[in-house]
Amino acid sequence: MSSEPVRALFLAFPALEGKLPFLPLANLPTPLAPMERLSARVGAEVWVKRDGLSHPVYGGNKMRKFEFIFGDVRRKGARAVITGGGLGSHHTLATAVVARQLGIQPVCAYYCQPVDEKVRHNLRLSAPLGIDAHFCGDYAGLALSFLWQYARWFLRTRRPPYFIYPGASSTLGLLGYVNAALEIRDQVLARGLPAPDAIYVAAGSCGTLAGLVLGVRLAKLESRVVGVRVIERDVANRPKVARLVNRAAGYLQKCDPSIPRVEIAPEEIDLLDGYLGAGYAHPTEGARNAVTLAGETEGLTLETTYTGKALAALLDHARRDPHARLLFVDTFAENPALEPGDYRDLPAAFWPVFDTTHTARCWCLRGWRDPGFCWKRTPGPEGPESQ
Asked: What pLDDT, on a 0 to 100 scale, did the predictor assign at position 6?
């Protein structure tokens, strides 16, 4: 935890301090560093914002968002937080780490995604955290699970549980990346550098992208913010990003009327298609190559669901325009200080992920059925039944 939490957002707009819910959780500012060896390979000048180092236990992009979200949780006195994500969700892990740090019960619902060893590893990391975990199959099951768990934990704690939108992409969550954009501006100015031509980031629930878009406007940076869509279009799309930006801009201006008015139209959002592949969490060849290149040249650990696809898009830009100055926002939790547990400490519905001799049933849009169908989509290291 930061000993002296000075945030770029509060330095830029001092009137916001005390008006926004805030709890210092992240190690900020995160490093802004040149990727010299990678740049030499691709031609353009590439930098990285190392948000994977945002927390000593579990970094990544969520910790910036949680400074404002858990500030609100603390303010409202909730005893449980409810959220969800895919089976290998980093968001649910980060939520559980912070909730446990604050003595709050994490309640998490999980939907299907293709399973590989990283998904299994994240579930093992979840096991010792005391998450009240529920497998719900698909998005319809996720919504039903949220309703049921809200009622259950309200009755149990006699207080309303706090709902955290998957990906922490609420108005308060966005403020973490408004702060990040202002932080980038301050770091660029301190080094005497020009602003990057483009800032690349993965776009899933879209909160990180929307926060950067708003933050770049408020920072008056002459940089394009490019989101790389890593999930289906009904979840990540330009109208949604514009709504998130405008809602957060209105909230900030309400808290401090001196903040410039920002209103953005959907067509102003840079959201790239073409990097998703077969769907959410399905790796692509471009993502695998980008992950390998980042590891070989910079020792940077990425993954193929979010950061690999975002870096693949940046690399394509770099090869097209060798004179570009590009910034990659690394949102992946690097080297988490968590110990994996026994998968059998998870509810039995999760066991078929690890051992297909187990059977369990879950609610999916198609009805009650064996959840194994959800992860037998692509071959894994142990053969076709592993996923």
From this structure: 87
Distance of CA 156 to the CA centre of its chain: 29
Q: How many CB atoms lie within 10 A of CB 280?
A: 20
Say yes or no to pLDDT of 367 above 80.
Answer: no
387 has a pLDDT exceeding 70: no
Q: Which residues sit opposite 132 in a β-bridge?
A: 107
d(CA 275, CA 229): 7
DSSP string, 210-268: HHHHHHHHHHT---EEEEEE-S-TTTS-HHHHHHHHHHHHHHHHHH-TTSPP----GGG
Q: What's this model's pTM, rounded to 2 decimal places? A: 0.91
Q: Measured in Å, how far apart are the chain's first and last C-alpha atoms?
A: 38
Tell me what pLDDT residue 358 has: 60
DSSP string covering 94-107, please?
A: HHHHHHHHTT-EEE
Burial category of 6 from C-beta neighbours within 10 Å (exposed 0-12, middle 13-18, buried 19 and up): exposed
Task: Count, in order, helices (H) and strands (E) of the chain.
Answer: 12, 12
Residue 9 pairs in a beta bridge with: none
Compute and round to an integer the Cα radius of gyration of the chain. Answer: 20
